[in-house]
Amino acid sequence: MLHLVAEIEDAVAKIRRRWSGSARVGIILGTGLGSLAGQIETEATIDYEDIPHFPRSTTMGHTGQLVCGTLQGLPVAAMEGRFHAYEGYSYRQITFPVRVMRALGADLLIVSNACGGMNPRYGLGDIVVIEDHINLMNGNPLIGVNDDRLGPRFPDMSAPYDRRLIDKAIQIARREDFVAHKGVYVAVTGPNLETRAEYRFLRAIGADVVGMSTVPEVLVAVHAGMRVLGLSVVTDMCLPDCLKPAAIDEILSVAAGAEPKLRKIVLGVLADEAGQARS
Questions:
Q1: Which segments within the chain are labelled E, that is strand?
Q2: I need a surface site. Which of 63, 70, 92, 138 has the fewest CB within 10 A?
Q3: Angle, nearest 10°, between helix axes 91-103 and 215-223?
Q4: Strand 127-136 and strand 180-188: pairing?
Q5: Which pTM was predicted?
Q6: What is the pLDDT of residue 60?
Q7: Is 122 within 8 Å of 203 (Cβ atoms)?
Q8: What confidence score (pLDDT) does residue 279 get?
Q9: From its phi and psi, is residue 236 left (phi > 0), alpha (psi between -120 and 50) or beta?
């Protein structure tokens, strides 16, 4: 971890040549939230390949660029496309952009993902506001010699997801009249989907939804002292007694259909943050 500060400074210096703003919010536009980039009052768009030490996104539907500008009156740095362990990247590579967004000034991270629903009360297209997580990814981006300039050796994880933001997200969903649950997200490495026995196990240990991302970024955000809002869209049902083969095109279709709901939550939360800043 000791080499990270120099790498972060390299990346920030390159971004600063294109954007002089100071981010308030970092956003990871995962599956189900990609269209939000179109609503940012863009001041700079930078391809990942032009940012030192950034990986390259290889996942379907992930564009691969950093969008800097303002949204709801707040300066933001938004990732169009994220990275996953199943692409072959290390957890430090996956989370490096979070470090960079923090160095750009962001103290809030908003992250979205597509997930499989294991809670039988959930339905396709439902939004899950993550209130806790379980890490089964067989890795952690904080392993190694700690650099106290980046965060503490043993970051506390009693509340990795900001409780006020969770309540605000649920309030917005109720106001806009769509379903949103509070739930526990379990992260696995992938890229294969799970067996029936694995779904039974994951449900038994307390998970409501399962996915292949988010937790590494949240660990680093908490380590860096950021508040976090995590949002999932249920794109396939993972009920072992009536399990059907998952079709990627159907998953992407459900995610696209849920996009307006995710967008309303994010825009509502940012509007509230802007109001808090003015008061």
A1: 25-29, 41-47, 65-71, 74-80, 108-117, 127-136, 180-188, 209-211, 227-237
A2: 138
A3: 40
A4: parallel
A5: 0.95
A6: 53
A7: no
A8: 65
A9: beta
* 248's tokens: 């990627």
227-257 exposure pattern, b = at least 16 Cβ within 10 A, e = fewer: bbbbbbbbbbbbbbeeeeeeeeeebbebbbe
Query: How high does pLDDT run on average in the chain?
Result: 94
Yes or no: say if 89 and 81 are a contact pair by the CB < 8 Å rule.
no
pLDDT of residue 162 exceeding 90, the answer is yes
Work out whether the CA dihedral 243, 244, 245, 249 comes out positive or negative.
negative
Across the range 153-180, mean pLDDT stands at 98
pLDDT in tens, 17-53: 999 999 999 999 987 777 888 899 999 999 999 999 9
Residue 64's region, left for phi above 0, alpha for psi from -120 to 50, else beta, is: left
- Measured CA to CA, the distance from residue 279 to residue 125 in angstroms comes to 35
Q: 222 is written with which tokens?
A: 């908490």
Q: How many CB atoms lie within 10 A of CB 49?
A: 10
The position carrying tokens 């996009």 is 259
